[in-house]
Design goal:
By secondary structure, the chain is an all-alpha fold. The protein is 73% helix and 0% strand. The protein has one domain.
């Protein structure tokens, strides 16, 4: 397999794996708005969000992650996914201070690196893209 093909395949797999996580986070807003509301209250210090606002956030996030997984508007969508995930990662900083009780939060770090890599190499991410 040629170097270019390996890079394109690697970027596709990164994009698909990041999409799966982001898509499930998006679905959480529709199927479990109480959990999404608790996340906003506990990690972003935003309280009092109605179901309508949670659903609206979910719709916007769905548009972003669908654009991301299809490679549509790479400059915008890849940057927004990076921004969303970075915000989520940094908002969870307290969990990193107690690592042995919050091990799963550390999975956000390699995912953040994957988002950053995809943003930097977005022009080389060409498999299964519409852009």
């Amino acid at each position: 397999m040629k170097q270019v093909s390996r890079l394109a395949l690697s970027l596709l797999l990164l994009r698909l794996s990041v999409f799966i996580v982001m898509f499930v986070w998006t679905l959480d807003k529709f199927f479990n708005p109480d959990h999404a509301r608790a996340v906003f209250e506990n990690f972003y210090l935003i309280s009092g969000l109605s179901n309508g606002v949670i659903f609206l956030i979910g719709i916007v996030q769905l548009a972003i992650v669908l654009g991301f997984v299809t490679g549509f508007q790479k400059n915008r969508c890849y940057f927004l996914v990076l921004l969303l995930h970075a915000g989520s990662t940094f908002a969870s900083f307290r969990q990193y201070l107690d690592p042995f009780n919050n091990l799963l939060f550390f999975a956000a770090l390699p995912m953040l690196a994957a988002c950053f890599t995809l943003f930097l190499l977005r022009d080389a991410d060409t498999l299964w893209t519409v852009d």
